[in-house]
Design brief:
This protein is mainly α. It has 27 helices and 10 strands. The strands form 3 sheets. A 6-stranded mixed beta sheet has the order 3-5-4-6-7-8, with helices on both faces. Strands 1-2 form a two-stranded antiparallel ribbon. A two-stranded antiparallel sheet has the order 9-10. Strand 6, helix 22 and strand 7 form a beta-alpha-beta unit. Helix 2 packs across helix 9, helix 3 packs antiparallel against helix 4 and helix 4 runs antiparallel to helix 17. The protein is elongated, with a radius of gyration of 30 Å.
């Protein structure tokens, strides 16, 4: 029922009267210990405990069981106060988590290169508001964002998922009880609420499980982080909470419960040992560790000689269970930040030191943050309100660190932009790609110039979308080209994946020079080809439809020229038994023939070479004497590009290949800096600045037959 004084206070349902305050559960503490140790060992030695990531799933089952048990227990006391419930969660979880986020934010500004700030600080903000899982889900499906390095707060995704469960599940219970109060029949009030709440939870759990199986099969990247694919794991623990009353154990002997517990522990051990990064997760097989966790909780702590209780009650096991939350919070930032500070990957000694430091900080955090805050009062509306206000103030303090970092980033970007605009408009011809062939003449001009864009801003050096244009959703099936320039001459469509998108500054330079009407239709990971990449089902289907739709646009808009490019070095699904490379060529030939049949011409731009791994870090450490140290070898930099072979298939002058390999590489090296310009924004894309310097050269090299009607 809804109280007149508190709109979110719900009366108890009669059927929960038998639920008593839960006693201490040593087996749950043992589960926590095993879960955190599995995660810790997996993060440090992923090739040893290959399924250690399942410790998070064990935590989810525990959370579902305990939180639902608490909610049912509160209902027996006559009401369910949502503010008080959430205030308890704040008191239990936020002091330690916000402390870790605050310390991590300061460490990022003090120890981490500025090139990583935008990603890391953005994730700190997302973690502060417990939306990190959705932040990572979005990044994992973004072609550029998916190249992000792991951040020191990436592990907050699971905490975000839990917090979202803590918000939604109490709301569902409250809504169900309110609705029951309105529609109930007095004679049935003792039975129907149980069926109602249990039924709601069962529907949510089954629906989430079904969706998890579907999503991991069709779109696995975001499915790993999404709350919707994880809710069933919380639901499994919650369903157990409905049955975990005195009658349950009364139906089972101590010996049976002991055997159940062993079965659960063995199931968990097998899962963390046998699962790998290639296991579809959280899908059908995830039922195994979830079931193991349910069995352990269901069995309880039996006194039978057949029970593992003697092991689970060991003091070290219970201690690790006690500090498991803080240990989870503290261990991961060190794993990410230490290699950045030392410049070396973690060795065995480093890993052992991290374990010791993480345990010490976890104990201190548990002893001086978690336990003291749990003793603070939460008995009145005033104290509840103070917890909410305190949480908001603390979150704002944490968010102030990223805000300061973003301010510094904005200043760096503005300074870079001003410097780049000045250098590009300079008529000296000693900037970027124009320097190639004139290195000696430009040596004095380039001497002492700062690298642009800097390593701190290279990742964000991209042409912004024009007004009215939007990012293309990954599940979008229809091409909806954006008008970049309305001219009076040739109508041109720039089309392809992100490697076509990066050429927008060059296309604009051509459009300005020749008064083109320029349309742009690009979609990450989707080449303008009849050949399909072996992507997940969602992207495979969307890319195929999107490409055909783009071809339809060429026909409908009477496009004169199609500019296109695509990422090199990727696999293609076989076409008529051909190899991957031959299928890539055949797919382009078929698609380009469709363009020619529509009355348009094709200009394909050869894909750019690849830099060495960690190219920005190399430049950061070696600039300005970075020319040779950070250069790639042409043999490894140029990957198979089907556009070259496809262009040779056409004898017609209506297909032309623009090749800038001579500007990007010499016979011996592919520099990371050309004419003072930082060439690469990430592991395979070019900076907008370098592409802008290719514009004048593209104007010179494009045949006249393609520039005018």
């Amino acid at each position: 029922m809804t109280s007149a004084n508190s709109p979110t206070t719900v009366a108890a349902a009669p059927w929960v009267a038998t639920v008593s305050a839960p006693a201490f559960r040593p087996e749950i503490q043992a589960l926590r210990a095993v879960a955190i140790l599995s995660v810790l060992l997996y993060h440090l030695w992923p090739n040893r405990l290959t399924g250690g990531y399942l410790g998070v799933d064990v935590f989810f089952v525990i959370s579902g069981f305990l939180i639902t048990s608490h909610l049912l227990r509160d209902s027996t006391r006559g009401f369910l106060s949502l503010p008080k419930f959430w205030a308890r969660r704040i008191r239990r979880l936020l002091p330690a988590s916000l402390t870790v986020l605050l310390v991590t934010g300061i460490a990022v500004l003090a120890l981490v290169p500025q090139r990583l700030w935008e990603q890391y600080l953005g994730e700190i903000v997302a973690s502060t508001v417990y939306a990190q899982n959705w932040f990572l889900a979005a990044s994992s499906v973004d072609y550029l964002g998916s190249e992000n390095e792991p951040s020191p707060v990436q592990h907050f995704w699971s905490l975000s998922t839990e917090e979202q469960f803590y918000i939604v599940w109490p709301l569902l219970i409250a809504l169900a009880l309110v609705l029951w109060r309105v529609i109930r029949k007095p004679a049935a009030e003792a039975a129907i609420p149980r069926r109602l709440l249990f039924g709601i939870l069962l529907v949510v759990t089954v629906s989430s499980f079904a969706y998890a199986i579907y999503a991991t099969a069709t779109d696995p990247a975001p499915a790993f982080f999404a709350t919707t694919t994880r809710a069933w794991e919380f639901g499994a623990g919650s369903l157990l909470a409905f049955a975990a009353t005195s009658w349950l154990h009364g139906q089972l002997s101590d010996h049976v419960r002991g055997l159940m517990a062993w079965a659960g522990w063995i199931t968990i051990a097998a899962s963390v040992s046998l699962f790998t990064d290639n296991t579809v997760h959280p899908g059908l097989l995830t039922v195994i560790p979830v079931l193991g966790s349910v069995l352990v909780i269901w069995a309880g702590s039996s006194e039978s000689r057949l029970s593992p209780s003697a092991l689970t009650k060991l003091r070290p096991v219970q201690f690790i269970g006690d500090i498991s939350y803080s240990l989870y919070l503290w261990h991961w930032p060190f794993i990410v930040v230490v290699p950045i500070v030392t410049g070396n990957s973690l060795g065995t000694r480093d890993k052992l030191v991290i374990i010791v430091v993480a345990f010490v900080l976890a104990y201190l955090s548990y002893r001086f943050i978690e336990k003291p805050t749990l003793r603070l009062p939460l008995v009145s509306r005033g104290s509840t309100r103070r917890w909410f206000i305190g949480a908001l103030v603390a979150a704002l303090v944490v968010a102030a660190i990223p805000a300061a970092g973003f301010g510094i980033i904005a200043q760096s970007v503005a300074a870079d932009k001003s410097r780049i605009d000045e250098l590009i408009t300079d008529d000296s011809g000693c900037f970027g790609a124009a320097v190639v062939g004139s290195e000696a003449e430009c040596a004095a001009e380039l001497d002492g110039l700062p690298l642009v864009p800097s390593t701190a801003t290279a990742a964000t050096d991209a042409l912004p979308l024009p007004d009215g244009c939007v990012e293309v959703a990954r599940d979008e099936h229809e091409a909806d080209p954006c008008l970049y320039r309305q001219g009076k001459g040739t109508t041109v469509l720039l089309v392809g994946d992100s490697h076509a998108e990066q050429l927008r500054p060059m296309a604009l330079a051509l459009a300005d020079e020749y008064d083109w009407t320029l349309w742009v239709a690009t979609k990450g990971r989707c080449a303008f080809s009849d050949a399909e990449r072996p992507l997940e089902e969602l992207m495979r289907s969307a890319c195929a439809d999107w490409g055909r739709s783009a071809l339809g646009f060429v026909e409908d808009k009477s496009v004169d020229v199609v500019l296109t490019s695509q990422v090199s070095g990727v696999e293609f699904a076989p076409i008529d038994g051909r190899s991957s490379d031959d299928s890539g060529v055949a797919g382009l030939v078929t698609r380009w023939q469709g363009v020619l049949d529509a009355g348009a011409k094709v200009v394909a731009i050869r894909d750019n070479p690849r830099p060495i791994p960690g190219v920005q870090l190399c430049l950061e450490e070696n600039w300005p004497s970075a020319a040779q140290k950070c250069a790639a070898e042409p043999e490894s930099a140029f990957l198979f590009d089907p556009q070259l072979a496809a262009a040779e298939e056409f004898s017609s002058d209506d297909v032309h290949l623009l090749d800038f390999a001579d500007l990007e590489c010499t016979t011996t090296e592919c520099p990371a800096v050309i004419g003072g310009v930082n060439v690469y924004k990430d592991a395979n894309h070019l900076t907008q600045t370098f592409v802008r310097t290719l514009g004048p050269i593209a104007i010179e090299r494009l045949p006249a037959a393609f520039t005018a009607k």
